[in-house]
Design goal:
The protein is an alpha+beta fold. The chain is built from 4 helices and 2 strands. A hairpin with a 6-residue loop joins strand 1 and strand 2.
């Protein structure tokens, strides 16, 4: 998979702490729909995984994303080549 700058930013962010798309969008200064468009192929490639959970203090269940071992390796590779 050819990772774009936004993909790399998302992977780097959720490598530190799992997060939901709205928070990722806020942290990166992007639109939530843009984040979803990047997360879908990242999840299909097995670089991230989403799990539904309830965030602290929030009444709704949200999908939280975290990096997989394959995603960590891809991020490490990208950082070494830059």
């Amino acid at each position: 998979m050819n990772l774009k700058n936004t993909d790399i930013a998302i992977l780097s962010l959720i490598d530190v702490k799992r997060s939901h798309p709205s928070k990722i969008a806020r942290d990166l200064g992007k639109d939530r729909r843009t984040i979803h468009r990047h997360l879908t192929p990242l999840e299909a490639e097995g670089l991230v995984e989403g799990q539904y959970s309830q965030d602290k203090g929030r009444p709704m269940i949200m999908k939280q994303y975290s990096l997989t071992s394959k995603g960590r390796q891809a991020l490490k590779t990208v950082k070494q080549t830059r």
